[in-house]
Amino acid sequence: MKTKKLITVAVAFILACAGLSACGNTGGTSNGASTQSQKAETPKPADLTGKWKETNPASAQQHMEATIEGNTITINWVTSDSTSLYWKGTYEPPTNAGDYSWTSKGDTETMKTALLASRDSTKKFTYTKGQLTYKQTALGVTTTIKMSKQQ
Fold this sequence. Notes:
The chain has helices at 2-23, 30-38, 108-111; strands spanning 50-54, 62-69, 72-79, 83-90, 100-105, 122-128, 131-138, 141-149. By secondary structure, the chain is an alpha+beta fold. Strand 3 and strand 4 (83-90) form a beta hairpin. The longest helix is centred in the N-terminal third of the chain and has 22 residues, at 2-23. This is Lipoprotein. Keywords: Signal.
């Protein structure tokens, strides 16, 4: 009788150990596949090139539009019948994902001949959550211009 109990306990112990070994299996491809699916893609820097339009104009008759192309940003005052240069300067694309800002160096030679152009030599631009912003001063009033990218 003791032998029967001993054999039963031994068999139960062996089965329990075998079951635990199977649960802890680290070999095979299923574990590698789940590791790959858990890896998220690395976020990419925003592509700011293209056309931008002011989203908070002070007047329905005029607004600002920007074009970022190559290493240049150009901003114009736009009305129903005219377009006038406000800013032309350098553009430095973001190298990391997320919020971004850069200080544009103005093309003062080009801007000095434009009546409505900024007289600043530099201008800070900020990109946050799909919106491009900068400060503009006209007639002694400073306004934060907000722009969204056009399709």
